[in-house]
Amino acid sequence: MQNLLDPAILFFAFGLLAGLLKSNLEIPPAISRFLSLYLLMALGLKGGFALAKSGLNAEVATTLGCAVALALTVPLLGYQLMRRFLNGYDAAAIAATYGSVSAVTFITTLQYLEGRGMPYGGHMAAAMALMESPAIILAVLLANRLRQGAVAGQASVVQAGAGVLALGGAPVPSPASHSVSLGKLLHEAFTDGAQLLLLGAMVVGMLTGEKGEAMMAPFSVDLFKGMLAFFLLDMGLTAARQLAQLGRPSPFLLVYAVAGPLLHASLALGLALAFGIEPGNGALLMVLAASASYIAVPAALRFAIPEAKPALYLGLSLGVTFPFNLLFGIPLYVSVAWRLLA
C-alpha cells in the first residue's frame, strides 16, 4: 500500500482511470517522446556516475552475465509455452515482448529503492541495455524459420500454381517473402536512438565522475521525480487504451500476463541466490526479468513479424503486465530480494 502512495504511481493510477473513463485528457506525442528520452538520459548519467565510483569488478561482470542469461532464457521458455496455445508468429511476438525489458518499470524501481535508502549498483543500467535486444533477435529467427517451414509445406501448392499460371491465374505468394535480414536487424538493434542515448549518457557519467554529477544534479536529480510522474500519467492513459483494444483474449493469456512475470522474477532470484548478488541489484534483476517491453520490441515486431497481432502482444504487456508490476510487482520483488539476499 505504501507504494501506491508514491506521487508518480498515483499519477499512473489517475491516468489509467481517466483513460478508462474515456476522458479527452492526453499528452502530445512529442512531449511523451521527450519525457522518455529525458528519463533514459538521466538514468544513464546516474549509472555512469555510480560506475565511476565503484569501477568494474567481478560482481559487475557476474550480474551482467546473469542479465544476458535471462535475456536468452525467458523468450525461449515463453515461446515453447505460447506455441501450445497460439500460432507461431503470435507466440514469437509475445515471447519477445516478455523476454525484453521495460525501462519505465526499471526507473520506477530505482525511485522505489532510493526512497527507502536501499543501495544498488550503477551497472544495472547496463544490464537493462543488454537485456533489450536478444529477445527481438530470437523472435525474428523463429519467425524466419516458421516462414521457411511454410514454404517447404507449400511446395506442392507452388508446383500446382505453375499450371494455374498457364491458365492465366495469379502466382502463389511465398511466405518467405518477408524474411528479415538478421544483419539489418542487428544494426537497428544496436543503433536504436534510445539505447544509444542510455549508453552514451553512461559513458559521459563515467568520464566526468563526481564533478559531472554535481554539475548535472539540477537536471538528472532535481527534475527526475516530476518528469517521471508526468510520463507515468501518459503511460496510464496509454495502458487504458491498450486494455480497450485487447478485447477478450484467452483466459490463459491473461493469467500468463501476471504469472509469467512472477515466474521470470523467480528465475532471476534463483540466479541472484546462486551467484551471491547483493539485494538491491538482485531486486533490479528480478524487475528486469519480470518486466515486458511496450516500446522497443513492439516497434520492431510491427516490421519484423507483421503476421503477429499487435493488439495481442502490446495489449498484454502494456494493458496488463505493466500496471501489475507498477502497482504490485515492484514492492513484492524488492521485499523478497531483501529477505532472501540480505
Automatic annotation (TrEMBL):
Reply yes or no: does the keyword Transmembrane helix apply. yes
Q: Does the keyword Transmembrane apply?
A: yes
Q: Which UniProt keywords apply?
A: Membrane, Transmembrane, Transmembrane helix
Instruction: Note one Pfam family from the annotation.
Output: Sbt_1
Q: Mind telling me which InterPro entries this protein's record contains?
A: Sbt_1
**Transmembrane feature ranges:** 6-22, 34-52, 58-79, 91-113, 125-143, 253-277, 283-305, 312-334
Which named protein is this? Sodium-dependent bicarbonate transport family permease
- Record the organism: Malikia granosa
